Amino acid sequence: MRIAIVGGGILGTAHADEAVRRGHEVIQLEREHEARGATVRNFGLVWVSGRAEFELEAALRSRQLWQDLASRVPEIGFRPAGSLTLLRTPEEVAVAEQTMARPDADVRGFALLDPEQVLAVNPALRGKYLAGLHCTLDGAVESRIALPAIRRQLAASGRYTFHSGTEAREVTSNSTGVHIRDDHGRTFDADLAIVCPGATLGGLARDLAGELPLRRVRLQMMQTAPLGEDLTTAIADGDSLRYYPGFAGTALDALKAAQPQAPTAEAHRMQLLCVQRLHGGLTIGDTHEYDEPFDFDVDEAPYQHLTGVVEELLGRTLPPIVKRWAGVYSQHLDPGELVHRGQPTDNVWVVAGPGGRGMTLGPALAEQTADQLGL
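^ TIGR03364 family FAD-dependent oxidoreductase, sequence as received from the core. Prediction below:
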C-alpha cells in the first residue's frame, strides 16, 4: 500500500517506520522543517517504572522495539541504563516497599537498594537519601536527534519520502483512496492516511474528527552544561511516586496524607525526572499545567526547586543551566486509554494523545495501529 503519515513527531515517525518495515510505501508530511513539539521537548525516557498494570505490557513491548530500532539505527542513542527513584523520607520508602511486594515487581525490573548499593549502581549520587528504587528496564534515547536518524534509515529503503515544511490542509477520501492537499497547493494520493497531530488539536485534526477526547498539558524543563562525570541511570525523586499510577496503594495514600509536597512543587504539580544526554548535560524537569490558556512565559520558581532537589541528591552543585523551555503534549481524557485512535472517514485514521508517554510507547502504539488496520 501507499500510506500517508501526517505529522513528524514520534507517533508519526514510529508509524512510518512500522509501515516501511511491513513492506509499504510511505510519504510523511511535517509542517515544520523538523518536529518542534513534545517529541523533542522531553527527556527521551523509555519509562517502564510506575506504569499502570493495563499499560505495562505496551511499555515492555515498546522498550523491546526501541532496542530493536537501535540495532538498525544506532544514532538514536538508546541506552538501557535503568533508573533510580531516590527516596528521602520513611513514607516514600514505604511506598517502594509496598511496590516491591507486588507480584509484578520482577517483571518491572525493580530492586530496592540501600544508599551503599545506590552508589555502586550510580556513583554520582553522593547526596542525601534513604534508599533508591532501581528499575533496570528503564532506558533513554536522544530525543533531539532520534527522528532525523530514523528518517535517514527509512529513506535508504527507497520506499519513504519525507516532506518537511509541508502542512496538510485538507484530507479527503473516496473509492479511489485518500487525497491530501497541502499549503503549497500540492496534492498527495495514498491508499490510507494516518494523522498524528500531537498537541495541535485544532485545524486539520478538528476538521477531520471534531473535538477529540483529549486535553493538553504544558510542562517546563531545563538542561545543564556537561556534568563532568557519568550519571549512569536516569533519576527521579519521591514526588514522582504521586504521578505514576503503578505506585498507587495504601502506602501512597499515607504518604500524601502525612507528607505534603513543597509549596512550589505542589503549586506546579511537580516531580523530578533527570537524565544525562550523550553530550554530558542533564535534562531536568518537570511541571504539569492543565488549565488553558497556557502562559507564554516560564516561571523561575520551579527551576530553583528542581535545582535544589538535584543538588541534594547529587551532593554537589549543578553545572550552569544552558537551556530552559516549555512544551505541550496531548493526553487522553480517559486515564484507562493509552491513546486516541479513531477513524473519522474511510481509510483515514487519527492517532493522538499518549499523554507524556509518546517516547515510551510510540513504537508499540504504531505496532498496535498496524495490527488493527491489517497492514
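The longest strand covers residues 321-332.
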